[in-house]
Amino acid sequence: MSTDAADRRALAEGFADLALAAGAAIMAVHGKADPTAKADGSPLTEADLRAHAAILAGLARLCPGIPVISEEDAAHRAPGGLRLFILVDPLDGTREFLSGNGEFTVNIALVENGAPVAGVVAAPALGRLWAGAAGQGAWCAGTDRPGRQAIAARQPPEAGLVAVASRSHRDAATDAFLAGLSVAGLRSVGSSLKFCLLAAGEADVYPRFGPTMEWDTAAGQAVLEAAGGRVVTPEGAPLRYGKPGWRNGPFIGWGAGPLPPSSS
């Protein structure tokens, strides 16, 4: 099975509806969370499980022939050479969800031949949704879906780059990387919202050197790349999917324009 631009657009539209349904399930228990700990020590809440169930049920109707890997059941799935699959993070930024700052998201992405080619990031507490499909561009909308606006990554400003970094996982390697750039401003943001700020032309670079999993990044990368940006390794290679253990290495998200010499 393979997809064309129209297929990817249709799936992004369908993913948006599912992300909104998952967001509603999350908001129904927002502020009522009683977290437990996963095997890796990260928190798990009823909201994670409700969103997971809503998305998987919807995907079974929307695209029953495509394998789905969700954070909440990925331990039962090995990459195994999958060429076409869907990555889901039902609640990205559980720490932000528990803190009440609203910077958590629902992430759904289609991966084809190792590249995320359609994706949706919904931020239910912020009332925003971002989507994109390869060859079809990227857009944002309110979670009540009254309308949408095309978005595009921007060229680097002459005044200097606006960088975004993880609110909960910023490290010394990130600070060292940013020290080598002309940075005019820095925003600390949770979850995959960092990709969306680049995609919307509100920021220019997002370095991440700490550990992430593929479901953390695939949807945001799909939106950013559909908007004209890129996500690459520190050596400049595209960030790919279907890796052993579903684990990412370091990466850098960039807006539009040529990559700096250190990342090309």
From TrEMBL:
Single GO biological process annotation from the record: phosphatidylinositol phosphate biosynthetic process
Residue stretches in coiled coil: none
Any Gene Ontology CC annotation: plasma membrane
Principal location class: membrane
GO MF annotation list: 3'(2'),5'-bisphosphate nucleotidase activity; magnesium ion binding
Binding site for substrate: E71, L91, D92, G93, T94, D216
Reported cofactor(s): Mg(2+)
Protein name: 3'(2'),5'-bisphosphate nucleotidase CysQ
Alphabetical UniProt keywords: Cell inner membrane, Cell membrane, Hydrolase, Magnesium, Membrane, Metal-binding
Binding site for Mg(2+) 2: D89, D92, D216
Signal sequence, renumbered to the chain: none
NCBIfam families cross-referenced by the UniProt entry: bisphos_cysQ
Subcellular location per the Swiss-Prot or TrEMBL entry: Cell inner membrane
